[in-house]
Every structure is written in C-alpha cells, then in structure tokens.
Amino acid sequence: MSAKEYFQRDAERETFYRTFYQICRRFNVTWSTATPEVRAFIEEVTRVTYEREKAKRNGVSLSTVKPSVSYTHLTLPTT
User: Fold this and answer.
1) pTM of the predicted model, to two decimals?
2) Which pLDDT does position 69 carry in this prediction?
3) Which residues 6+ apart lie within 8 Å of 68 measured at CB?
4) Cα separations in angstroms, 1 against 6, 7, 44
5) Diameter of the chain by CA atoms?
C-alpha cells in the first residue's frame, strides 16, 4: 500500500471502523487490553453488523450475510 492509498479516504473503510468503534463502546471493550477471546467476539459482531448494514444500503437480502459464530460462553466486561 502506498502512502497515497493509505491517506486516501474510503467511505466503506470509514463505515467499517465506525461500526467497530461503536461495537467496542457498546460492550465496554478497550481493544488494546482485550483478551483474544473478547477480540474475536468484537471482530465477529463488527463483521456481521457491518455486512448487514452494507446489505441494507445496497438493497441486498440479509440472508446473504454469513451468520455469526456463537460466543455465548464469553463473559464480557461490564460497567
């Protein structure tokens, strides 16, 4: 990736990261101190949320979005 590509604005990339930060806030997760299990959970919830929002924006059926992996065994941080 060139410096120009790195600094070039990409609307989809910004939307993905905005979703990621919202998910972190929703679950009170600080990425730099999160365990690998919590990071995997946040990554999966972000992926599914982003893909569902993208499908809605593009008028595509939500059934095209790969379902999430179950993380019901995790205990997430609480406030």
Assistant:
1) 0.73
2) 66
3) 44, 45, 47, 48
4) 7, 10, 25
5) 43
